[in-house]
Write a structure and sequence with these properties.
445 residues, Rossmann fold, Elongation Factor Tu (Ef-tu), domain 3, six-stranded mixed beta sheet, alpha/beta, six-stranded parallel beta sheet
Length: 445
């Protein structure tokens, strides 16, 4: 679809690009599927009534001549000279030659090579050619701009807003209606907190925004033992925010990001088990993850779908071990029975077979979501039927897929597109709680 993303600019396709597309069209891989789709799009453009391949095709379907640029094909050989040190038969070098020839042919126009191939861009710059990356697939330019899900209120918050704050009680929660300079920075379901020595602390979630005022709803304190979820209490501010999202039936989609050991999987599982076995809100937990290995692949795995996914689910087993430690009075049999019951309510699914499925009243955990493309992420989230809750977790600093970056990962895409929707929430977990060794290693290695 990149052809339609350049607005008023003309696009020129060298013949070798069509040749490259032809070489990739066979097979069932994602690349082959995309190559075939691109060929169909080009065929539809070329086959449109009145289309003239030598004059180029108008890319805008509305027919406004100046709204969109044209798509031009290389219809005759171009004369160019590249350094003899570059092998002439290589496709990349032929494309560089076309750019060089076009620059000579149209001295008044700016000719820019757009490519995702970093090496090719370096070569183009070395030859003095203008070049640029294709930016449209990036959700964010910089990972630091990613929505964090929480907002620290300024230290003079009570002083500036204290007189205008209305408050009321509803059930266990207190609501505050605030307006002022901080409201434009707030989003629905964003967490706000105020911590200042000598002042009352405030931990709340933005429940709605009405014009220039926002309604804040206080949180349930999961740091306290009386609110423990399946025996797990949260250990820091961000974990408490995350648990409030995980336990809220009104929130259908939760994204959790954070470094190793921040408690993403443990909290998601504890909240899932409580809502499946105690509250009966969902019928079962479904766990899936992107099967991308860190090192060399160890080949095919034997067994059923669940057995094949087994080695990928080490993280799940480790967390179940923690959650399965029931009180010792139950004895060995009691613990074994509890573990068996927990296991029966957790299904492990492979992502490869998700097409066409619908999950009804399920609690779905997508682990290692940073390795998914935006398209895979869309496929998974659109599986949700009535009463289903989806939790996406990942660490954007640990992307193992070679073609994804922090800016183009499906997890970044989901966080960015869902922010502000009343039935979704995101939190970036900041503090590692695994062990002092893991925390120190995260910092120094």
């Amino acid at each position: 679809m990149s052809l339609f993303r350049f607005e008023e600019h003309d696009i020129y396709l060298p013949m070798i690009v069509l040749e490259e597309l032809d070489g990739h069209k066979k097979g069932m891989t994602e690349v082959a599927r995309n190559a075939r789709q691109t060929s169909r799009t080009l065929d539809a453009l070329a086959g449109a009534p009145g289309a003239d391949i030598t004059a180029g095709f108008q890319l805008d379907s509305t027919g406004q001549r100046d709204a969109r640029g044209k798509l031009l094909f290389q219809t005759q050989p171009l004369d160019y000279s590249l350094p003899t040190s570059l092998p002439q038969g290589k496709a990349d070098n032929q494309i560089l030659g076309v750019v060089e020839a076009l620059r000579k042919q149209h001295p008044a126009r700016e000719v820019v090579l757009v490519s995702k191939d970093i090496n090719m861009r370096v070569k183009a710059r070395a030859l003095g050619l203008a070049t640029d990356d294709y930016q449209n697939d990036k959700t964010l330019e910089d990972g630091d701009l990613l929505y964090a899900g929480s907002l620290a209120l300024p230290t003079d918050f009570w002083a500036t807003h204290g007189q205008t704050v209305e408050s009321w009680q509803q059930g266990q929660h207190t609501f505050y209606k605030v307006d002022g300079p901080t409201v434009p920075n707030m989003m629905v379901n964003q967490f706000v907190y105020f911590e200042s020595p000598g002042e009352p602390s405030l931990y709340a979630r933005v429940s709605e925004i009405r014009g220039s005022s926002a309604v804040l709803k206080t949180l349930r304190d999961f740091n306290h033992l009386k609110n423990a979820v399946w025996g797990v209490t949260t250990r820091n501010r961000e974990q408490n925010f995350a648990m409030n999202l995980l336990m809220d039936p009104e929130v259908d989609f939760v994204t959790l990001t954070g470094t190793a050991g921040t408690g993403k999987t443990l909290m998601a599982l504890a909240a899932g088990l409580t809502q499946v076995l105690d509250d009966r809100r969902y019928t079962e937990i479904i766990v899936t993850r992107a099967t991308v290995s860190v090192g060399e692949d160890i080949g095919f795995l034997p067994g059923t779908e669940e057995e094949k996914m087994g080695p990928w689910m080490g993280a799940l087993d480790d967390n179940l071990e923690v959650l399965g430690k029931t009180d010792t009075s139950a004895g060995e049999w009691g613990r074994a029975a509890t573990n068996e019951l927990i296991r029966s309510r957790i299904k492990i699914k492979s992502m490869n077979f998700m097409r066409g499925r619908t999950f009804l009243n399920k609690y779905v955990i997508i682990d290692e979501a940073q390795n998914l493309t935006p398209k895979q992420m869309k496929t998974l989230i659109t599986r949700a039927g009535p009463g289903t809750k989806i939790i996406c977790m990942g660490n954007l600093a640990q992307i193992d897929t070679p073609y994804l970056t922090e800016g183009s990962s499906g997890l970044t895409f989901a966080v960015d597109r869902f922010k502000g929707w009343p039935h979704s929430g995101h939190i970036t977990l900041a503090r590692g709680e695994r062990s002092r060794l893991a925390d120190f290693a995260s910092e120094v290695l």
